[in-house]
Structure to design on (277 residues):
């Protein structure tokens, strides 16, 4: 376990309580899988990356003053199971890379260092969240010199989740939860710090959460061809990772089997029930 990253993430929970979450647009799965330069390994890495930076941005925690740490792309790559120096996935996360190009993120230098929530000003009954950035505070701020001493990289940039502020020509997912799914910090940490779970398992877990949670019995019938299209995953890989989620009782599946007249190779759509962590 990477103690530095673990403490950095857990401090968000310590500072803001157990109900720490981000809302991710359901359209992210199609946005990532429809890109011709990605496969299931890259799609799942990109999803995990976006989720991590969403937490770091929402809670203004790219820099942790308590631990004297700051998060760079190399740290996130390592957290998601890659070597810090791996270059094969940099095309996804670099400035003007895949995530920036398809509009999920924007690369910025003026990173948030704190936020306030207005008790009376709200959008969709959610308090407006006002971020203060490193450029906002100036040298007179008590934490300015501390932050500058922590951030050793003079060219330090972070990712802004564009969907926080605008999504589908509407208010962003900070305020509009329609067509989104919630990911809690508890869920994220459970996956990235498990020796037996990987990025694909996390992607599948969140995909089924987006599809099933809130329906009767949190259950939905989904054809394998739909899942394969949405996630760019083959049947063998899908069932391998599905079984890992079932073994942990994060979800269950009712395998319908062969049915005359079914639309997909004679197979009726399986029923999937999301249970969660």
């Amino acid at each position: 376990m990477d103690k530095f990253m673990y403490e950095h993430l857990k401090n968000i929970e310590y500072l803001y309580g157990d109900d720490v979450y981000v809302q991710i647009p359901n359209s992210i799965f199609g946005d990532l899988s429809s890109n011709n330069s990605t496969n299931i390994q890259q799609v799942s890495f990109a999803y995990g990356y976006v989720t991590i930076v969403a937490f770091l941005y929402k809670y203004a925690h790219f820099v942790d003053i308590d631990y004297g740490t700051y998060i760079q792309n190399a740290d996130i790559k390592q957290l998601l199971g890659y070597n810090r120096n791996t270059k094969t996935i940099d095309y996804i996360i670099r400035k003007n890379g895949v995530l920036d190009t398809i509009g999920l993120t924007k690369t910025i230098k003026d990173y948030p260092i704190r936020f306030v929530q207005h008790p009376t000003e709200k959008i969709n009954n959610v308090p407006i969240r006002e971020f203060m950035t490193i450029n906002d505070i100036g040298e007179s701020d008590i934490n300015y010199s501390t932050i500058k001493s922590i951030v050793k990289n003079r060219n330090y940039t972070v990712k802004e989740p564009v969907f926080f502020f605008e999504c589908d020509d509407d208010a962003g997912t900070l305020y509009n939860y329609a067509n989104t799914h919630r990911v809690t910090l508890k869920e994220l940490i459970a996956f990235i710090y498990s020796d037996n779970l990987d990025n694909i398992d996390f992607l599948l877990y969140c995909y089924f959460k987006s599809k099933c949670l809130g329906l009767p019995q949190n259950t939905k019938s989904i054809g394998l061809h739909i899942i394969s299209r949405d996630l760019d995953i083959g049947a063998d890989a899908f069932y391998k990772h599905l079984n890992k989620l079932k073994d942990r009782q994060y979800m269950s599946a009712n395998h319908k089997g062969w049915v005359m007249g079914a639309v997909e190779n004679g197979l009726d759509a399986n029923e999937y029930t999301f249970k969660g962590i």
Summary: Confidence is low (pLDDT under 50) at residues 258-266.
